[in-house]
Amino acid sequence: MTDALPTVLLDLDGTLTDSAALITEHLAAAIAGAGGPVFTPAQLLPLVGPPFEYALPELGLTDEQVAATVTAYRSSYGAVAATNTPLYPGITDLLDRLSGFRLALATAKPERLAAEIVDGLGLTRHFALVGGSDPVAGRVGKGPVVGSVLERLGLDPARDPVVMVGDRHHDVEGAAEHGVPTIGVSWGYATSPEELADAALVVADVDALAEALLSWRASGSVRFRKATMLP
């Protein structure tokens, strides 16, 4: 590892926040309001993480219904997300323990909304950058978001120590596009153990994540073992 400050890119939904109940409630209402099928929150759980612009057509929605759903969802969910999104237990302590790292958020959520949520949770001080999607700029999906965060922080993963932390395969794949390894967290919204098979490591709880990151910083190299999904 170089002398550069090690950087940890953190996903939001399913990694820092247990936001599925709130997201799926508002998404189900938005889909129904756009004339789509009626879904239960459990049926929509796999959609927590990837951009809705990509995921909603797979539910059989037309382009017009997708656009109407996204607009309605962002209006209703955005009005309450900053005040009603819960953190997973131990996350605040985790971020305190990682004070020796540069932390940045890398989420598929719209960047402005992500910043509002982080601020509402009182976590802004922990992050050098809150990075998210920006459809107007053509930045949609985890790969472009990770690339944007790296660029804005002036990081080159071939030279600088960087790792991603996330709960879905989109995190693993998006980070891998830029040569960044991922630590998967098993408390999130992965739909099967295989979803995180390409992560460098999968951890079962917040303490294990902190220990893995502190060991990475101290060892001077990324020494993760091949991932297995932990209970």
UniProtKB/TrEMBL annotation:
Pfam families in UniProt: HAD_2 (PF13419)
Record key words, sorted: Hydrolase
Molecular function terms from GO: hydrolase activity
Source organism, top-level taxon: Bacteria
Coiled coil (UniProt feature): none
The protein, known as: HAD-IA family hydrolase
